[in-house]
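Researcher: Sequence recovery benchmark, item below. Answer with residues only.
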């Protein structure tokens, strides 16, 4: 009984300490250049993740279509669509475009409106 009470008190105390330490942390504002970097990084990661199944379905669909397997053209079409979306996304959020936007921002030019629309609170708070 005493051991149970001790464990409960210890757990409650640790929980309270973690809550107080999270309130004590101060968040520093992140500038727009870091937010743009995070946006581009996340979008490039997303395009890579999308390209993996797209390439698989494209390759499997091409081989299966050549062998005459039923349903293969559908798989091939799905692979083409996924791959095309991944390539377009990777082109829109390329490292070169990111560097061009950031260098223009450092020279005093504003961030393009299409990029500003995509920036969310999570890009500033990371």
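Model:
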């Amino acid at each position: 009984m005493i051991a149970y009470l001790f464990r409960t008190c210890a757990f409650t105390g640790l929980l309270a300490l973690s809550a107080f330490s999270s309130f004590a942390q101060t968040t520093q504002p992140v500038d727009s250049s870091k937010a743009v970097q995070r946006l581009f990084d996340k979008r490039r990661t997303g395009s890579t993740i999308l390209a993996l199944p797209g390439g698989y379905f494209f390759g499997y669909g091409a081989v299966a279509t050549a062998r005459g397997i039923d349903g293969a053209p559908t798989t091939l079409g799905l692979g083409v669509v996924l791959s095309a979306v991944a390539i377009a996304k990777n082109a829109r959020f390329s490292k070169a475009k990111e560097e061009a936007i950031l260098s223009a921002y450092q020279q005093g030019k504003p961030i393009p409106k299409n990029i500003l629309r995509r920036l969310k609170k999570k890009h500033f708070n990371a």
